[in-house]
């Protein structure tokens, strides 16, 4: 049977059926091309144990172990693979080319000036990515190294998960996780069943019953399992958790017995065994081909609006670089057209230079100018952005306002690449159950035989009665038979599992009646119902059913005669044992059984709203964010919840697109709704739209544009009866609309994963439906109410910080390179550099890097409390306002203006024949360049200080420390003769510069000239034309006003200062603001606010 098998390597992406043994990667399992069942063609054959394999095959078989991985690098491929990934980035590849050009041709600057910054950027990025991959290695090792027990040679042997082979019989105990996809063989129960929970896979927390076949259920010892001769034939591995087709062939006394296998026989890796002491099962899918691994999707690389703008601006700066290089090359040859400049008497050309190709010279000069001006492209921008995102993401997890004490869950960041995108959201798509609600069902009322009952003080009474009304006062008496039938049905269809340890239960005034459970027709979302067939003590067979309308339960029953039940039993058994089209045949059998039903009644349950949902939705609406609710609930329930949570207002005109059956009907209804919106009838200001899944499918089929126009004119949209893929389609529809708005999707269940992955930003709620939504999200929070602060505060902060970071990088690099370009007009375009090579190298790495990094981590344009209390401030930063083309041009022109002032201010100071030294000595070329560089470092650092609104001790330290470090380094660098340098051009240059009073005066004048217009602009706009943000900034320190009238002694101030300083050093740099974080960590919030306020007053005094 096994002679035609071929070996399959893991991770190949296809399955070979050749006679030749093919081994790639780690061999996995044996496959066969010849199966009688067409649905199992090219399927998998799994002999149950190794002894049986040797008995059935003449070949030596290699079977794959369990080992699975989700990491990206190994020790051996980290360096080449990481370098390849990094140099795929255009900026890194560009600087690599510049570095190679410097090595190949004679350029004005040393290759170190490009090589060292490139090495620094590549190294920092590699360390960050290596650390993240090490965490993935660590997580994989925990899974692959978990201890498991397998049956080997008739006894249990403990091994590691990575050593499990296909065909191994594995023992799993209660509350343990299944290490692979297993086919259940037996359990400690006589019937061979077990109960599992799949919450970690599909989010469903209810227990599920799985079955073994009768021939293997009796094998409950290691010796019996060792003697078992069986082969499992199953389909190729696929990611569908609910689909499995196979068969088990058991050989007993020389006879082969074939039994069908389905999803009820498969125990999925990642699921957990419950209410069962132990089970034995055979491994069929292991490693990366288990269903859990196949469902693992690397989240698509999402790019934020800031990153897209940054790449656009980099292209513009690349155009500026090319323009400057081409212009300089042309002007050089134009200048050298005169022989006296082309070949001066002190620099005669050689014969080889005279005969060289003019085209090659032109290209060489062009590349040399490219190298000279290449620093206009900020090489350290990418690494600084990555560090800011990585470090800044910790603040979300540290924010105690996002911590849920009841569940002990804090906010979680799964990706740090989208922090700034939280400040640009225009549409929020949210699930209802478990996201807006608690997902806790509480019984409220029911209807039995036409009479409505409701809960009053824990008692069930007819409508119109109180709990103490006499029994005879009911307006409508319901027969006891209906009440009994309904109660019995709810009891039968309720999933209850006996505990492992029998417990004594006392029944007072009750008679215990036994029913024989014959069949269970499990619930599925297509039928929306669950049925059971039971036999009464009298022998009568009853079919009981309830239809789940999600928040309502419709109860019905049907009685079978003995002959009818025989036919029902035959149909069910035939469908369940079918090897082909099993699912279709089961649906046919269910349809035959679930008909001619007698209605008994209905029940109603309430799903309570989460805390502060209404306030959160209102805050998002004030922030200019449109909220859409996408739910699978029915129309009435969804509208009721939307009204109660504030999504719909009572005064809002509700438009409906429901129960549309044809394209024409749907199109006509859309036109009617569109005309209503345009007409503004009844003077309605706001409209709300309700659409169901069926009508949505028709609307998206050929009327997308008209549907979008209707939706845009509505303040709120509710989509009910939505399938998971429809949720993703809605998000994609808005996401790809002409306006390209930023979308955010939030949900808590497995059915929300598709829309979470589709949206620009995905938020997972740590609810009660497992963790699949959390694992596939970009951010995870414990409650919906935390979404307000995540967007309005953290989103605002992150966007402003990183947008300013990008603008500032472009600005300071324009300031850096433009004087270099201007200098060429004064050196006959000879490619002479204005700055020393060490300054060129360290400008972006050391002298100006830390202040902007600290700014991008701690800056707060407005106090967090103000941002939460005034959601409208969110509108000021929407649509990428801080990084728009207008602000980009402002920062760029400001950089050019400051660069002109740096250069010509220093040039005017020196003039011609001007002596600035006490001994009459003139400044040289390197002193002039150092003067320009010194003014530039001070100006760009103080410019950032002017942009800073929130100062911490770290901000002061890096701002003034960077300037001090530059002076100390320059004194040290220019005060020593370095033997490894080819020239000593900078020796004593900086000391000479600082010894001149005129140079000091020039530095002060030039810095003031550059920054004074900025100060005037800020003062003018703040007082004459303030923005909403600037108005809010004025009131940020209002808590101090309460204490301004207090009479403070010097002793009081000293004591307060000491307490605050103690808090600073106790908490370190992890604190984002005084009044909240310190207080929360020390549980003295009010007291610390007093201290901070008093310190502010003392500073004013």
Write structural notes for this entry.
This protein has 1101 residues and is an alpha+beta fold. The protein contains 38 helices and 32 strands. The protein has a 9-stranded mixed β-sheet with strand order 16-32-31-30-17-26-29-28-27, with helices on both faces. Strands 20-19-18-25-24-23-22-21 form an 8-stranded antiparallel β-sheet. Strands 5-4-6-15-7-13 form a 6-stranded antiparallel β-sheet.
Summarize the structure.
45% of the residues lie in helices and 17% in strands. The chain is α+β, with helices and mostly antiparallel strands and 1101 residues long.
Strand segment tally: 32
Structural class given helices, strands, pairing? alpha+beta
State the strand order across the main sheet.
16-32-31-30-17-26-29-28-27
How can the largest sheet be summarized?
9 strands, mixed
Residues in helices, as a percent range: 40-55%
Mind telling me the C-alpha Rg? Answer: 37 Å
Given the C-alpha coordinates, what overall shape results? elongated
Regions with pLDDT < 50 over 5+ consecutive residues? Answer: 1-42, 50-68, 466-480, 495-510, 1037-1053, 1063-1091, 1093-1101
* DSSP summary: helix tally: 38
Distance between the termini: 94 Å
Mean pLDDT: 76
Tally of separate domains: 5
% residues in beta strands: 15-25%
